[in-house]
């Protein structure tokens, strides 16, 4: 089966990366991960990639004088592999046009809220404070706005009366792990049809 190549960008524990690794293990999943880039040394997501035998590039943003030079280093790394789609999965850096322009329409992110609600950080805490009865996650294209790109798909969960940010985060995370492979499958089919 023809598959598209993914680069997955992470900053931490990498449970969304794991959901993509697991999905890619199926013969009928139309994508494979060619490369993982991590901007924080020694996080657990790196071990997940290594265990799966996927090349990992640790590119600490702190080693670079600017966002743009950091992003250029990521672009140079991605260029070494046959990548069709770049997936930000718990990647905690805002990217600039340096990175977005070459990948526009092929750069996606997962956000733990039902966008356009609760862009940015502390989404679960804010959803509970706002009295929301529904929360969830969104897979969206990345553009120059923070969490503002076109929505690809969303999955929702109820907010329960006794929820804390942690219990809600756990419920949303389960949906994230379903949503990301689903979105990649959808986009892979589109990309393969155009090839
Ligand atoms: C996820 O909730 C993701 O939506 C958010 O950060 C978290 C990352 O988790 N942007 P993980 O590293 O994928 O486990």
Description:
Strands 3-2-1-4-5-6-7 form a 7-stranded mixed β-sheet, sandwiched between helices. By secondary structure, it is of the alpha/beta class. Helix content is 38%, strand content 22%. It is globular. The protein contains 6 helices and 7 strands, in the order βαβαβαβαβαββα. α1 (15-24) packs parallel to α6 (165-194) and α5 (123-129) crosses α6 (165-194). The chain has one domain: Formyl transferase, N-terminal domain (Rossmann fold), CATH 3.40.50.170. It has helices at 15-24, 44-51, 67-78, 97-103, 123-129, 165-194, and strands at residues 4-10, 31-38, 56-58, 85-88, 107-111, 134-141, 151-158. Bound molecules: 5-O-phosphono-beta-D-ribofuranosylamine.
Search tags:
alpha/beta; Rossmann fold; 195 residues; single chain; binds 5-O-phosphono-beta-D-ribofuranosylamine; 7-stranded mixed beta sheet; 38% helix
Q: Helix share of residues?
A: 25-40%
| Biggest sheet layout | 7 strands, mixed
Tally the helices: what do you get? 6
Shape: globular
| Strand line-up in the sheet with most strands | 3-2-1-4-5-6-7
- SSE pattern: EHEHEHEHEHEEH
Ligand set: 5-O-phosphono-beta-D-ribofuranosylamine
CATH topology: Rossmann fold
Structural class: alpha/beta
Q: What number of structural domains do the residues give?
A: 1
CATH architecture, by name, is 3-Layer(aba) Sandwich
Low-confidence stretches: none
Show the helix and strand layout.
Layout: E1 4-10, H1 15-24, E2 31-38, H2 44-51, E3 56-58, H3 67-78, E4 85-88, H4 97-103, E5 107-111, H5 123-129, E6 134-141, E7 151-158, H6 165-194
Parallel strand pairs: 1-2, 1-4, 2-3, 4-5
Antiparallel strand pairs: 5-6, 6-7
Helix pairs in contact: 1-6, 5-6
């Amino acid at each position: 089966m023809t598959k598209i190549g993914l680069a997955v960008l992470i900053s931490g524990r990498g449970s969304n990366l794991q959901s993509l690794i697991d999905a890619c293990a199926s013969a009928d999943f139309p994508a494979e991960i060619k490369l993982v880039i991590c901007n924080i040394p020694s996080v657990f997501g790196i071990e997940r990639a290594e265990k799966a035998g996927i090349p990992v590039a640790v590119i600490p943003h702190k080693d670079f004088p600017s966002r743009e030079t950091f992003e250029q280093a990521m672009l140079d790394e991605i260029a070494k592999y046959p990548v069709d789609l770049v997936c930000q999965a718990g990647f905690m850096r805002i990217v600039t046009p340096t990175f977005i322009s070459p990948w526009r329409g092929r750069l996606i992110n997962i956000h733990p809220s039902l966008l356009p609600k609760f862009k940015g950080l502390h989404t679960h805490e804010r959803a509970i404070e706002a009295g929301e009865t529904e929360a969830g996650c969104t897979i969206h294209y990345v553009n120059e706005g923070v969490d503002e790109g076109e929505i690809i798909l969303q999955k929702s969960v109820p907010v329960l009366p006794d929820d804390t940010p942690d219990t809600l985060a756990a419920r949303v995370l389960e949906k994230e792990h379903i949503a990301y492979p689903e979105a990649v499958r959808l986009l892979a089919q589109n990309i393969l049809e155009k090839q």
